[in-house]
């Protein structure tokens, strides 16, 4: 699975391009409500940091603190990106996960992810072409696909909800869900708040060996 956030100004031309690239009304789906801006819903800058409370269904009742830090102008696959680094200690290991993003007229693009445990890289994935994390402007009902010839992962703007996390209660959190169309049990759901960023993430992952679906929850502290 992938994931995650940043900041930038994108103009009216970008909004038009985003609507076109994401399929507009997606084959007849009605778009409703205001147009949300990726530059506000996924708003960060180099030096920003925050924390999540992380819990996993394999350890009921337990949680750890995850530190998130943003660094600007980090080179990844010959592209200058925002690096969003997640850090936590889990199962006796120091784990990091780096996500690499750029902001374009199309929207927020994710270029890849690098994972490491105790300093040893365990996953280094480059997305070619880059995945559309969020279009420049998006509305409830909007959907788009990417990955594996542009069709593997499908992301949908589900609605606007009130979400309570340790950091507070947010009345207008935009819910965006993603499903792996080849493994429907694997999903990601984000709640974005303009001028705050991501306040909650729920992921489900299928263990191919046991068939068990695990759930992880991250909530903003």
Which short descriptors sum up this protein?
single chain; 6% helix; 2 helices; two-stranded antiparallel ribbon; disordered N terminus; 221 residues; twelve-stranded antiparallel β-sheet; mainly beta; 63% strand; globular
Q: Explain this structure to me?
A:
There is one protein chain. The chain has about 220 residues and is mainly beta. The protein has one domain (about 10-220). It contains 2 helices and 14 strands; from the N terminus they run H-E-H-E-E-E-E-E-E-E-E-E-E-E-E-E. The protein has helices at about 10-20, 40; strands spanning about 30-35, 50-55, 65-75, 80-90, 95-105, 105-115, 120-135, 135-140, 145, 155-165, 170-180, 185-195, 195-205, 215-220. The strands form 2 sheets. A 12-stranded antiparallel beta sheet has the order 7-6-5-4-3-2-14-13-12-11-10-9. Strands 1-8 form a two-stranded antiparallel ribbon. Strand 2 (about 50-55) and strand 3 form a beta hairpin. The two termini are about 25 Å apart. Mean pLDDT is about 90; it is low at about 1-25.
Identify the overall geometry.
globular
Rounded to an integer in angstroms, the radius of gyration calculated over CA atoms is 17 Å
Low-confidence stretches: 1-25
The number of helical segments is 2
How much helical structure, as a percent, in the residues?
Answer: under 10%
- Strand coverage percent: over 45%
Query: What is the ordering of alpha helices and beta strands?
Result: HEHEEEEEEEEEEEEE
Which class best fits the helix and strand makeup? Answer: mainly beta
The neighbouring-strand order within the major sheet is 7-6-5-4-3-2-14-13-12-11-10-9
Distance between the termini: 23 Å
How many DSSP E strands?
14
């Amino acid at each position: 699975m992938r994931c995650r956030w940043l900041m930038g100004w994108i103009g009216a031309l970008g909004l038009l391009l985003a609507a076109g690239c994401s399929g507009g009304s997606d084959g007849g789906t009605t778009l409703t409500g205001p147009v949300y801006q990726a530059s506000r819903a996924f708003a960060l800058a180099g030096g920003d940091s925050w924390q999540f409370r992380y819990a996993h269904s394999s350890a009921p009742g337990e949680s750890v603190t995850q530190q998130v830090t943003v660094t600007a102008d980090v080179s990844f696959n010959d592209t200058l990106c925002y690096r969003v680094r997640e850090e936590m200690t889990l199962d006796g290991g120091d784990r990091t996960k780096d996500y690499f993003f750029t902001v374009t007229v199309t929207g927020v693009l994710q270029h890849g992810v690098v994972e490491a445990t105790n300093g040893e890289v365990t996953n280094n994935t480059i997305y070619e072409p880059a995945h559309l994390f969020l279009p420049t402007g998006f509305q409830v009902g909007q959907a788009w696909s990417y990955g594996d010839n542009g069709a593997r992962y499908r992301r949908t703007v589900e609605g606007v909800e009130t979400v309570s996390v340790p950091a507070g209660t947010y009345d207008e959190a935009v819910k965006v869900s993603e499903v792996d169309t080849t493994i429907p049990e694997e999903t990601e759901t984000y709640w974005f708040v303009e001028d705050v960023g991501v306040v909650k993430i729920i992921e489900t992952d299928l263990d191919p060996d046991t068939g068990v679906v695990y759930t992880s929850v991250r909530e903003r502290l």
